[in-house]
Design a protein that fits this description.
Layout: H1 7-16, E1 29-34, E2 37-43, E3 52-57, E4 60-67, E5 85-92, E6 103-107, E7 110-116, H2 134-139
Antiparallel strand pairs: 1-2, 2-7, 3-4, 4-5, 6-7
């Protein structure tokens, strides 16, 4: 028997394990549910798409990004606030999510990950029948 899954409870559980900092800087995250999917949007500006890895293992989504500043080797720094190196963030995914059909898109410094809700976890409308119960019919005759 399928159990009812509250999407808001699922989102709360997912965000509680998301963490808010990455080594060397912040990897901001927005998360919301829309059209039967959970959407996660990470701001990762200045990172080449080839330097981003997205993985799911044991229902944990991991985003790793490597930002390098190779063009500044030998520079005399006056101010350096942008973090470099490998950074990661993890989000625990709930049982109601289909981790086998995760998709990712990177555009203008934003990584968008879409995770569909499993069909069996979606709310199901129950049809109400209008038939009389046979025992009630027999008693009335």
């Amino acid at each position: 028997m399928a159990r009812f899954v509250d999407p808001f409870e699922e989102m709360d559980r997912m965000l509680a394990t998301a963490g808010t900092r990455w080594r060397g800087g912040v990897m901001p995250l927005d998360a919301y549910e829309k059209d039967g999917q959970y959407i996660l949007r990470f701001d990762i500006p200045g990172v080449d798409r080839s330097k981003i890895d997205v993985m799911v293992e044991d229902r944990v989504l991991t985003v790793k990004a490597e930002r390098s500043m190779e063009d500044t080797v030998g520079a005399n720094w006056m101010l350096r606030e942008r973090p470099t190196g490998v950074h990661s963030r993890q989000v625990r995914l709930g049982d109601s999510l289909d981790v086998n059909n995760v998709s990712a898109d990177y555009n203008d410094g934003t990584l968008t990950i879409a995770i569909p809700v499993k069909e069996e976890a979606k709310p199901q409308k129950i049809t109400i029948e209008t038939h009389k119960h046979e025992a009630l019919e027999a008693a009335s005759t």
